Amino acid sequence: MTSVPQPIPFVDLHALHQPIQTELDAAIAQVLARGDFILGQAVRDFEAAFAQACGVEHAVGVACGTDAIALGLQACGIGKGDEVIVPANTFIATVIGVLHAEATPVLVDCDPHTALMDLDAVEEAISPRTRAILPVHLYGQVVSPRKLREIAAIHNLIIFEDAAQAHLGQRDGEIAGSIGMAAAFSFYPSKNLGTVGNGGMVVTANSDVAERVRSLRNYGAPKKYVHVYRGTNSRLDTLQGTVLKVKLPYLGQWNQQRNHAAQTYDRLLTPLKELGVVPMRNDSGLGHVYHLYVIQVNSPHGDGGSPPLRDGDSPPLRDGGSRPLRDRNTLSQALAEQGIQTGIHYPIPCHLQPAYRNLGYSAGNFPVSEQLSEHILSLPMYPGLSDEEIERVVYAIKAHLSTSS
Ligand SMILES: Cc1ncc(COP(=O)(O)O)c(C=O)c1O
C-alpha cells in the first residue's frame, strides 16, 4: 500500500496556537468576565507593549491594517491634493489606505531581485504635490532606512511605513515602524503577529500624530461627544487586543524560526538555479522576518540582472531552445498535487486592478512588477515548518522542473 504524504499547508495557525492555547483561553475568559469589550484594558496593555517592541513611544490600535494606513496618513496631515508614492507591487490595501485618506497614490516600480519599492523610481516620481513616501516592507524585508531618509530629507517628504508584513523586521539596526513619521501594521490572522479576526495598529514617535489617531478611530472625538475631526469607528477590539498581548512575547522566536526556514530553503534551492528557480534576495540578513518566502520561476530576472522583457519579446528558452520553460502556474499545480500549498503575492499589480483604472496607469507602465506577477511563487512559510518539510517542498520543485514537458 502506498502511503499518502502529509499535506504541507501554506501557513499553519493551528500549530502556532496549540502550545499557547491555555494562555489564550485564560486571557479571553478574563475579557469576558470584565466585559470591557471596547477599548478595554487589554488594548491599552497591548498598545504599550507593541510600542516598546517597535522602539517608539506610541501605538494606537485600530480595526485593521487598511485603516491604520488611512487614519495614520490623515493624522500626519496628509489629505486631498497630496500625492503619496507607493509601490505598484504590494497588496491593494496600501493603495486603498491612501485613497481613504483622500490623497492620490502615485505608483512606482520595484527592484527585480528583492521586489521592494525601487527607490530610484521614487525620486523620479516626486512632483511639487508629493507629500509622502509610503514604503512597503514587503514579504518581511525592511526597505533601506538610510536611502529612504536621504530622499525624504532632500525633498522634504514624510516617510509613512506600511509594515503590515514586517512585525519586528530590522534593517541596519532599525526596527520596522520606527523609521518614518508613523507606520501601519496589520494583525490579519496569517501575519507574523496575527489575531483571531481583524486588527491593526498605527505606531509613531510623534505624540500629536498618536493623539489624532486616537480621536480619528473613535468618531473623531478626543472627548466623548465632542467631534473635532471627521473620524470613523475603527477600534481594535479588546478580544483581539488580548490575543495579541498573549502572542507578542513569542513573536521574536517565531520570526527566528521563519528566518531559519528561509535559510534552509535558500541552501537547498541553490542548485536549482540551473532549473530556473531563484529566491528573492535578502539584503537584511537576520533582520528579514520572512512573512513570505518567495521564489522566481524562470523569470527574466532570475539570472541576477538581465533587463526586463518588453512587449513583443519572446520568453526565454532553455535546453538549447528545444522546450519551453516550465512556468510558475504548472509548478504550483504540481506542488498542489503533492499536497503542498503555495500562494502568489501578487498575481496582478495594483495599477492593473480593474477598480483602479482611473488612477491612469496601463500595462507596460511598471514592467518589473508586471513580470514578477507572472513568475513569483510563495512557498509554505510559518514558524514550526520543519527542515524535512522544506526538503520535501524543494524535492517536489526539483522533480517537476527536471521532467521534460
Ligand atoms: C502590505 C499590506 N498592507 C496592508 C494590508 C492591510 O491589512 P488589513 O488586511 O489588516 O486591512 C496588508 C494585509 O492584509 C498588507 O499585506
> Average pLDDT value?
94
Main beta-sheet strand count, sense and barrel state: 7 strands, mixed
- How much helix, percentage-wise, in residues? 25-40%
Order of helices and strands: HHHEHEHEHEHEEEEEHHHEEEEHHEH
Spell out which ligands are present.
pyridoxal-5'-phosphate
Distance between the termini: 29 Å
Strand content of the residues, in percent?
5-15%
Nearest-angstrom radius of gyration?
22 Å
- The parts where pLDDT drops under 50 for at least 5 residues are 304-324
How many extended strands? 14
Shape: globular
For this structure, the CATH topology of the largest domain is Aspartate Aminotransferase, domain 2
The CATH architecture designation of the largest domain is: 3-Layer(aba) Sandwich
CATH classification class of the largest domain: Alpha Beta
What structural class do helix, strand and pairing data support?
Answer: alpha/beta
Instruction: Give me the side-by-side strand order of the main sheet.
Output: 1-9-8-5-4-2-3
Number of helices: 13
Which terms summarize this structure?
405 residues, alpha/beta, Aspartate Aminotransferase, domain 2, Aspartate Aminotransferase, domain 1, 2 domains, 7-stranded mixed β-sheet, 3-stranded antiparallel β-sheet, globular, binds pyridoxal-5'-phosphate
